[in-house]
Amino acid sequence: MNFPKLSKSNFACGGSLKISTLEEENSTNSPSATRSPTNLPIVLRWDSEKGCCKTQFPPNDNTSDPLYSNLADLVRDCSPATFGHDGKDVLDEQYRKAAKLDNTQFSTNFNPHDSGIIAAISQVLLPSFAKPKPPSSSNGAQPNQRQEYVSTDHSSLSTELYKLNIYSAPSGKFKAHVDTPRGPNQFGSLVICLPSTHQGGQLQIRHSGEQITYDWSNDDASTISWAAFYSDCEHEVFEVTNGHRVTLTYNLYVYEHLGNVVQSIPSADPTKYPLYKKISELLDNGDFMPEEHSEIGGLLGYYCEHRYAHTSEDIESRLPYVLKGRDALIYAVFQKGSGKRVYFRPVLETIEGDSDHCRNSDDSDDDGDTDRVGTGLHGIQITDEESDRGDWLEYLDDAWDHELWTKISWINNQWSKPEEVALVYLKYGNQAATAWHYSYLAMFIEIPKLSERSTKDNKVEQNEQNEEGCQQQASSGGDKDVEMEENEGAI
């Protein structure tokens, strides 16, 4: 039986804003739910050798202001832009040719929150999530009491003005690259293209075989253009052939709400997603995971497609709030829409010679597949054990906290998915050397027995158990294997 194919996930969004005059702004300054945001010209101030300078986008001819400078002055006061490689800042104009100002060297009156850009990013790129429901009993939570969840808003989104970049003709460019998240809270970047006439300089963003191109070339400089995308997306700035492409770059961070007093944007309803209908039909099919003699009908596994720094110390408190794109879709449909138990674990990479961790082909019906699944989300584990010929398998059970799980029905495979260093050890050959192995972040979905999961006539109760409870259950059986039906297809 084949799993339904996933819809193409969102990994970027963008748009444009009209530049208005002061008279236009005043004439539209009346409450209206349908009025489009308008923006006054953007004023930019920066430090220069001759003191403080300022200019305006779109440019004007106001030379009466003693601080006024033209775009050429701004370009002259910028420094060459570098890029990070192997932990170092590299200047290579064959790879990146641009100028920049750091955020300590300039200021601007533009605020992406005021213009509605951040609200749009929140709705498109940030997920909804469920928070634990406080115990209703005055005595608090009781032993073995099932944790209930309530639907809440998405997390709070904050921005950090990072740099001003100028790509100038001829040959201003930045070849394909992937940004490194500056911590577990950063999930993406926002690029604001200021209204300045130029040609070329298209921004192309790629993820999981899909791509989208934003072309902000213009001859009249009457709009502000923008694009936001996840940090792990590959992106490229094509060559500027005429003029100057001036952009502001912001880092995007996600945080959990500190309070729940006001909820201005309701959470999306996962039951309205196209995937939910497909999953419901699948769960009602008597041939899908009909197991009745075990505690559950089966277990689905899904390798997350985005990077979340899952070996960082505080990642457990960040999940599921920072899930993106298809990962957020899968989580929302199963955890919130279908009411299934969903939790996260690291899975060790498949390594040649590991007879306890065997991986058959995706189309295999063999139930012999076994995976080394971490007992919980934890940081990098380091062992000072030394092994002849690199035979680290003999002490792997003690070196990396995990269990052997069998018959996981994988929705996708681990190939090309984001990986993190999980285990560091000494490898002994002609001389001792440090070696390491990787793990992948996986989402596990427990499917109830057929008799307990009817969705045709009754809405499934959304009483998912929290991550801590799932961890306790997973570890209570020691080395007990988890049994489930084998996946016969792939999403």
Write out key terms for the chains shown.
8 helices; 28 strands; mainly beta; globular; single chain; disordered N terminus; 13-stranded mixed β-sheet; six-stranded mixed β-sheet; 491 residues
Describe the structure.
The chain is mainly beta. Helix content is 13%, strand content 37%. The protein has 8 helices and 28 strands. Strands 1, 2, 5, 8, 9, 13, 14, 15, 16, 17, 18, 19 and 20 form a 13-stranded mixed β-sheet that branches. Strand 1, helix 1 (22-27) and strand 2 form a beta-alpha-beta unit. 35% of the residues are buried.
Number of strands: 28
Largest sheet, described in full? 13 strands, mixed
Q: Give the number of helices.
A: 8
- Classify the helix fraction into a percent range: 10-25%
Low-confidence stretches: 1-8, 29-37, 128-133, 136-154, 258-267, 359-367, 455-491
> What percent strand?
35-45%
Determine the structural class based on helices, strands and strand pairing.
Answer: mainly beta
What's the mean pLDDT score?
74
Shape: globular
Tell me the radius of gyration. 26 Å
